[in-house]
Amino acid sequence: MEPRASHYILLLLVGISLANPVRKPGPPAFQPIPGNVDITSKFLETNKGSSEHLLEGDLLFPKIKNALYCLNNNNNCFWKKNSSNLVEVPYTLSSEYSSTDISIIKNAMSTFHNKTCIRFIPRLNQTDYISIENKDGCYSYLGRIGGKQVVSFKRQGCVYHGIIQHELNHALGFYHEHTRSDRDKYVKINWEYVPTDKASNFQIQNTNNQNTTYDYSSIMHYGRTAFTTQAGKDTITPIPDATVAIGQRQDMSNLDILRINKLYGCVV
Ligand SMILES: [Zn+2]
């Protein structure tokens, strides 16, 4: 899908820091991201050559709208519940994926199924659906845009449990955690290390925080050196405790799950 020039397209980084990953208890039911990999740099590199007009990282905005406050409050940017109160998100999968890729993607989807009322289901003939494709980066639109919408997981660099969860969360309508409306109380943006052309990636959004607390351990939070102009310098520093870990891409946090359930009115 080629976004029109008039569309406001915004790409946001898959911000990852594995220096202090926030791990949830229990055995990992997924393929972990290899150790000692600078995933922030890797994903910046992965998305850099994208033919999509990705201004930043991994999020496409086809329209000017907020994820959690739909235009006209009509909820048209969210996925719909079926008669069983389950929220169906039909998907198609590119034939370019290997069986291993597919099992990783489906396993990531299953975490939504186990803990929320979201159900990613193979598409039959539904009009609105996500098309999971091996394109040139890791990215998604924000919320349901209507019709076919691409979610890209490049085979080289994007097929990881946490990355898949992250992009699927965008498709459900979630912004990055560090751009939520109250973030200035929880993180400091070090603008001196933010490239001018990436500044919009750090701007506060008018988000619906659903009375949930700020979540440093969110799968939707950037890593501390995301887009930094100077190696080793933070663009995002947690406050008041600068040592708090941010940017994990291992698994959705409890708050990530809670917010999905709140946004979609899941009874779990
Ligand atoms: Zn993102």
UniProtKB/TrEMBL annotation:
Q: Kindly report, in one word, the top-level EC class recorded for this enzyme.
A: hydrolase
Task: State the Gene Ontology terms under molecular function.
Answer: metalloendopeptidase activity; zinc ion binding
Which PROSITE patterns does the UniProt record give?
ASTACIN
Its signal peptide is: 1-21
Which residues does the UniProt record annotate as the domain Peptidase M12A? Answer: 66-267
Which residues does the Swiss-Prot or TrEMBL record annotate as the active site? E167
Report the protein name in the record.
Answer: Metalloendopeptidase
Q: What is its EC number?
A: 3.4.24.-
Q: How is the cofactor bound?
A: Binds 1 zinc ion per subunit.
The residues listed in the UniProt record as binding Zn(2+), with positions renumbered to this chain, are H166, H170, H176
Q: Which GO terms describe its biological process?
A: proteolysis
Keywords of this entry = Disulfide bond, Hydrolase, Metal-binding, Metalloprotease, Protease, Signal, Zinc, Zymogen
Gene3D superfamilies of this UniProt entry? Collagenase (Catalytic Domain)
Q: Which InterPro entries match?
A: MetalloPept_cat_dom_sf, Peptidase_M12A, Peptidase_Metallo, ZnMP_hatching_enz
